């Protein structure tokens, strides 16, 4: 166990007084009997999980709590979590979270602040396959595409862009609220502050229902919306309306990624937060009381974890859980809490990402002339006969000067998303020839099933849960937003600044502020 490091400059005597004062005041906060405000920073904060959620939490907590607090971040796998790359034929490709929306401002700022750079997405021609034929095939001619879309779907497409834009406008309010330090104690109150009952209601209805009510045609939902849900979340139009809308925002032409790999953001945040990375698996969290010499009781949390060196434990003032607690995901036991912290476990969706170097079999998709086949991304409708959700040509995370996405008639690297591992027979159907296959299996995102009830963000007095937000929608930016929210919330609780938590009518209130 380590104790708070004192600034090197202070004398031994001053140091011990200083530490004593800190612990003394913590004890008052722990018991909260006299309601006295905390004036001293916490000594130690633990973050569990070094994905984008945990590393951005480290970054924001450092900003809020200052340089003296010790921040430990536990990781049992690799830094980056669901942001990871695979190596095929000597080049790296995004295997998990891959694209970022141009209006994802936290991700954008991280990249800027950390001195990273942006990799724009290659233009690609998309086709939508229904198991028998392409219901839509994009061509290189913009006007031609527009005419085709209007011909088939009327003004549904234009209406979708307007619908998503309206949602994004409201969603973007979060950045303003957070810049004024407002925080939320539940996912529901966060969504309500952004888009009122309409946003909350989206958690209760499927995207199918939501869009039908908004006047979209069933044909458009089946042929455009469902393929977007399948490629982004491996699920159908039964997902909740909020994650559905997030998924449709992923059809924006301005999507980008981080040059060198999205996980570089996690490494950068970790480095700049000066958090200590502990490679180990957290197994349990327990509340500990310590009698003080002065009479009070100090309440701390004990984190037990396994490393190569055996089982160890440390004590912390504040704990941030930055990994899903759903079935089979993190395996952390909360010992001795009353009421128990377990009640919100649900299931995650398996998605398999397979990378293949090869020639695609055009006749698998009902095309005869191989040379006519110019698509580089194929999405699929909800036809149950299909074993794949999508297939797309990918480029490596490091831009090479002369790398343009080649049409399907040439050999290149393809990424297939499917619910199960691809069998050899399936690969032989899908490709006329191939070599080099790499698979990455994920428990990728929640299985969405409205009405959706989000788990609490506050699991106990000073235990906060970032991934509660994934029940509304899973995306890198969602984790970053939730991480900043938890940094603000824990800070406000610690210093008793309750007027910055769950405020109503924020949008109106902030209109007058500049
Ligand atoms: C295939 C796929 C495609 C995706 N595509 C996109 C996309 O294009 N755009 C987008 O925005 N999002 C996408 N996402 C979603 C996005 O990747 C996630 O929402 C985001 O990365 C979640 O980050 P996180 O930090 O909250 O969780 P994670 O990245 O899962 O981090 C949690 C970390 O905690 C660690 N951990 C768990 N339990 C313990 C324990 N007991 N002790 C210690 N450590 C523990 C894990 O090893 C992990 O590293 C995709 C996800 C997948 C899987
Ligand atoms: C959502 O559904 C739950 C019950 O499942 C209900 O209590 C809640 O009021 C509903 N919320 C909205 C905004 O419709
Ligand atoms: C969407 O809802 C309609 C009825 O409201 C139903 O007929 C249709 O099958 C649903 N489609 C999907 C894909 O869930
Ligand atoms: C979590 O525990 C379950 C059963 O106890 C096990 O099947 C699963 O593999 C564990 N998950 C991880 C990631 O360790
Ligand atoms: C390609 O797809 C067609 C149609 O599904 C199939 O008959 C054929 O065996 C596949 N494989 C090759 C190598 O052409």
From TrEMBL:
Regions crossing the membrane: none
Q: Which GO terms describe its molecular function?
A: prenylcysteine oxidase activity
Q: Print the keywords alphabetically.
A: FAD, Flavoprotein, Glycoprotein, Lysosome, Oxidoreductase, Signal
One Gene Ontology BP term is: prenylated protein catabolic process
Q: Does the keyword Acetylation apply?
A: no
Query: Which cofactors is this protein said to need?
Result: FAD
Ranges for domain Prenylcysteine lyase: 136-503
Kindly list the places in or outside the cell where this protein is found, as annotated in its UniProt entry.
Answer: Lysosome
This enzyme catalyses:
an S-polyprenyl-L-cysteine + O2 + H2O = a polyprenal + L-cysteine + H2O2; [(2E,6E,10E)-geranylgeranyl]-L-cysteine + O2 + H2O = (2E,6E,10E)-geranylgeranial + L-cysteine + H2O2; S-(2E,6E)-farnesyl-L-cysteine + O2 + H2O = (2E,6E)-farnesal + L-cysteine + H2O2
Return the GO cellular component terms, semicolon-separated.
lysosome
Q: Does the keyword Signal apply?
A: yes
The signal peptide stretch is 1-24
Give the matching Pfam families. Answer: NAD_binding_8 (PF13450), Prenylcys_lyase (PF07156)
Listed EC numbers:
1.8.3.5
Give a short account of what the protein does. Answer: Prenylcysteine oxidase that cleaves the thioether bond of prenyl-L-cysteines, such as farnesylcysteine and geranylgeranylcysteine. Only active against free prenylcysteines and not prenylcysteine residues within prenylated proteins or peptides. Involved in the final step in the degradation of prenylated proteins, by degrading prenylcysteines after the protein has been degraded.
Please report which protein family the annotation says this sequence is part of: Belongs to the prenylcysteine oxidase family.
Q: What is this protein called?
A: Prenylcysteine oxidase 1
């Amino acid at each position: 166990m380590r104790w708070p490091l004192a600034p090197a400059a202070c004398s031994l005597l001053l140091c011990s007084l200083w530490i004593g004062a800190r612990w003394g005041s913590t004890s008052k906060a722990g018991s909260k009997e006299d309601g006295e405000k905390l004036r001293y920073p916490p000594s130690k904060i633990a973050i569990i999980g070094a994905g984008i959620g945990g590393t951005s939490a480290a970054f924001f907590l450092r900003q809020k709590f200052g340089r003296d607090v010790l921040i430990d971040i536990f990781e049992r796998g690799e830094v980056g979590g669901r942001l990871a790359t695979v190596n095929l034929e000597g080049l790296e490709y995004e295997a998990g979270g891959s694209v970022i929306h141009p209006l994802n401002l936290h991700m954008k700022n991280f990249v800027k602040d950390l001195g990273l750079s942006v990799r724009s997405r290659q233009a690609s021609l998309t086709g939508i396959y229904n198991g028998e034929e392409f219901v839509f095939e994009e061509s290189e001619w913009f006007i031609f595409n527009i005419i085709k879309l209007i011909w088939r779907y009327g003004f549904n497409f234009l209406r979708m862009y307007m619908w998503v834009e309206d949602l994004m406008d409201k969603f973007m309010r979060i950045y303003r609220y957070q810049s004024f330090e407002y925080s939320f104690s539940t996912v529901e109150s966060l969504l309500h502050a952004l888009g009122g009952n309409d946003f909350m209601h989206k958690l209760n209805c499927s995207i199918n229902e939501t869009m039908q009510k908004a006047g979209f045609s069933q044909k458009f939902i089946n042929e455009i919306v469902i393929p977007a849900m399948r490629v982004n979340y491996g699920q159908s139009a039964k997902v909740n309306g909020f994650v559905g809308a997030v998924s449709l925002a992923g059809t924006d032409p301005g999507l980008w990624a981080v040059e060198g790999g999205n996980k570089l953001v996690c490494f950068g945040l970790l480095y700049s937060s000066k958090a200590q990375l502990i490679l180990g698996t957290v197994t349990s969290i327990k509340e500990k009381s310590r009698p003080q010499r002065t009479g009070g009781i100090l309440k701390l949390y004990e984190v037990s974890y396994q490393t190569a060196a055996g089982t160890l434990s440390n004590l912390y003032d504040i704990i941030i859980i930055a990994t899903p607690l759903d079935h089979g995901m993190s395996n952390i036991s909360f010992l001795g809490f009353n009421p128990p912290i377990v009640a919100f476990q649900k299931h995650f969706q398996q998605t398999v990402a397979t990378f293949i170097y090869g020639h695609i079999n055009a006749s698998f998709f009902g095309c005869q002339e191989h040379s006519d086949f110019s698509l580089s991304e194929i999405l699929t409708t909800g036809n149950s006969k299909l074993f794949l959700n999508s297939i797309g040509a990918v480029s490596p995370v490091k831009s090479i000067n002369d790398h343009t996405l080649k049409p399907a008639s040439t050999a290149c690297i393809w990424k297939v998303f499917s619910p199960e591992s691809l069998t050899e027979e399936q690969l032989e159907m899908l490709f006329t020839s191939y070599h080099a296959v790499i698979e990455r299996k994920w428990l990728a995102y929640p299985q969405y099933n409205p009405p959706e009830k989000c788990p609490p963000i506050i699991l106990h007095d000073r235990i906060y849960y970032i991934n509660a937000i994934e029940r509304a929608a899973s995306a890198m930016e969602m984790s970053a937003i939730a991480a900043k929210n938890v940094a603000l919330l824990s800070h406000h609780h610690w210093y008793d600044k309750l007027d910055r938590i769950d405020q109503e009518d924020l949008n109106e209130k902030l209109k007058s502020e500049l």
